[in-house]
Amino acid sequence: MPITEVTLVKNQLADLVKQAIQNAQATGALPPFDLPEVFIERPQKKEWGDFATSLPLKLARDAKRAPLQIAQVIAAHFPPSDAVARVEPSAPGFVNIVLNDAWVARQVDAILAEGARFGDLTPARREKIQVEYVSVNPTGPMHVGSGRNGAIGDTLANILVAAGHDVQREFYINDNGTQVRQFGASLFATYAQALGKDEPVPEGGYQGAYVVEMGKQYAQQYGDQYLQMPRAQAVRELGRLGIDSVLASLRATLEQMNVRFDRWFSERSLHESGQFAGVLKRLQDRGLVFEKDGATWFAAQALGEEKDAVLIRSPQVVAEPDERPTYLASDVAYVWDKLAVRQFDRAIYIWGADHHGDVPRVIAAARALGLDPARITILLYQFVTLRRGEQVVKMSKRTGEFVTLDELIDEVGADAVRFMLITRAADTPMDFDLDLAVKQSDENPVYYVQYAHARIASILKKAAEAGATGDGGDVTRLTHPAELELIRAMLRLPEMVELAASKLEPHHLPHYAIDLAGIFHAFYKQCRVVSSDPADAEITRARLKLVAAAKLTLARTLNLMGVRAPESM
Prior knowledge:
The chain is α/β, with parallel strands linked by helices. It has helices at about 10-25, 55-65, 65-75, 100-115, 145-160, 180-195, 210-220, 230-255, 265-270, 275-285, 325-340, 360-370, 405-410, 415-420, 435, 445-465, 480-490, 495-505, 510-525, 535-560, and strands at about 50-55, 85-90, 95-100, 130, 165-175, 265, 290, 295-300, 310, 345-350, 375-380, 385-390, 390-395, 430-435. Among the domains are: about 10-100, 2-Layer Sandwich (Gyrase A, domain 2), CATH 3.30.1360.70; about 445-560, Isoleucyl-tRNA Synthetase, Domain 1 (Orthogonal Bundle). Helix content is about 50%, strand content about 10%. The longest helix has 26 residues, at about 230-255.
């Protein structure tokens, strides 16, 4: 049975294992039983082969055989395949599979034929998925934690697209409620101060230097216009003016980091459009809303939650109409908009770990609205500690004593920011070493990977200048262990896309990129790519194809991470 596709070789090997079992059952070597799903994995040690399955351990009861005996039967009945050199049973019940080196070498042509699509998958079911990320309050510059949110979210969206899904990227703008009023009141104070008025920033307001600068800017631009109108109106208008200004700044920052969105969604629109009113009625019709102390409550306890929650605050508690709906009210309307109105198959939220308490309420709200909670995934990420070597760089958003994401990008570059912010699993706190991020050495992972790509670009450029190309190269001449290891490493890219997409874990990509770069560097030390000896012309052509495929694979991996693949460094 030939394996003709380079994408997800392990899935095709799983089919061969199934066929081996069916062959054994047909001959009576194994009794009849229903075949379970076959999982093919990468062994922990290279000497165990390229792939392995532990299926015999699971079949012992159904097959009434010892696992090792089942592994031996599977190996004996394994169908012929040009991709497989050997199938070896091993204790206590594994089937190890070794790929054929000649087949491995031929995959260079297959990778080159795939081109920029190499690593793309065809899912069993194409889903319409929304990924919502960053979504910071638009009340000030972005800090590094929000940068991690952006790097995780945008990379995950890239991965899901590569996995074959229809993906929409969304930024949810918190432009309604208490924080907006607080921001507006803070701007009004600094604006009035800039015009010589004694106006203190309200308690709990925004104290950063950027608020002072914005107040001065508005004083110069508008004069005393906002002092001549009712205070509440001035606070509201300055707040919205400030939010528009901050949003423009956030867009510029995110564009620097190559983080993009298909839609910027306004929280305020949920209320102005009547969306929340419609959702509230739906909850009322289901008997899940009640009035208490002048407030409107969501009866979450009726759904098994620990506490009920306020949807609309009492007017005695909050006078401003915009502030009466709670964050939960907006969350309920927003999840309905995502799953019922826009009909996404799945909604993925990326939140800071400090929002963990909101997760069960959003899930409960979805259930209350008759939506399947399984369609909702909320990823929580831990925050980032900035360091210079051993020294911690502190930050505080409210006092202005914080390092902005802009400053981080200016210091270490957008590529280093993107790459390093996804090197750890999202639920793991991370240290970001500023000194390491700017090092031009193998210690710096992003430099290490980008340098591998640039080195290949240089090899291909110099070869072309010397009149050497890979045209017509016979890749079956690639038999050196370092060549074959490099090809085997490239073939792992589709597996990394599948793994990262299925587990929603972008951090697998940078680790794969580092491994691939290291294997390329080792190959380069052992195998001269371009030889001036005419007798080596054939191997030169084959190796130029190999390095072109390696360049393509590295570029694809970097692009999925939103990181540049430089031609020179």
